[in-house]
Design brief:
Sulfite Oxidase, Chain A, domain 2, seven-stranded mixed beta sheet, five-stranded mixed beta sheet, 4 helices, 12 strands, 10% helix
């Protein structure tokens, strides 16, 4: 069920073999890891923006965002710090839905995800358009906690978890890639767990 009491679609994120990527250890816990403080958020003034290389820039209040089509996704988490947590149930809005509403310009190839406190990460639109990529506000049937990204976080199951940025506020579509915070500070730009793309060779 979603936050309005209506059913949401559920899909299984495609599982790769081996299920546990190289160098990872399975855990039942969900460690809290982030840079800086947990931001304070006021839902009365919160908004989500999609802009950049789009024909129809979008902005939603919290109430408007909650009215968008929702989905549930069952997926694993793989953190670059070497822990993996299986069988997470996320609920939120498919990222490709908000991108579709903004009408992407032909030259847009990447997105810069802007979060609270100036944090950014970057991903190609081909990855963000997968049907298991969510803007999630619920995890395992409960609202996200602030430490885990409430009110809204990105979930990108096929990449190391730092790409699933917490506290998302803006999605900026761009023609050329722009490394985000962790990518500028030594982490790999692509972040594929099965290739152990943890750190940059730059």
């Amino acid at each position: 069920m979603n936050s309005s009491g209506e059913s949401a679609d559920i899909i299984e994120s495609p599982r790769r073999e081996p299920r546990l990527p190289p160098g990872q250890v399975k855990t039942e816990k969900w460690p809290v890891l982030h840079h800086g403080a947990v931001p304070g958020v006021d839902l009365a003034t919160w908004d989500l923006v999609v802009d950049g290389r789009v024909a129809r820039p979008q902005r939603w209040s919290w109430e408007e965002f909650q009215a968008l089509p929702r989905r549930r996704v069952h997926s694993d988490i793989h953190c670059v710090t070497r822990w993996s947590r299986y069988d997470n149930l996320w609920e939120g809005v498919p990222l490709r839905e908000v991108i579709r509403l903004a009408s992407v310009e032909p030259d847009a190839r990447f997105a810069i995800l802007h979060a609270e406190l100036g944090f950014t990460t970057n991903l190609p639109l081909t990855e963000l358009s997968q049907d298991d990529v969510l803007l999630a506000d619920r995890h395992d049937g409960e609202p996200l906690t602030p430490e885990h990204g409430w009110p809204l976080r990105l979930v990108v199951p096929r990449r190391y978890f730092w790409k699933s940025a917490k506290w998302i506020r803006r999605i900026e579509l761009v023609a050329a890639d722009q490394p985000g915070f962790w990518e500028r500070n030594g982490y790999h730009n692509d972040a594929d767990p099965w290739r152990e793309e943890r750190f940059s060779d730059w």
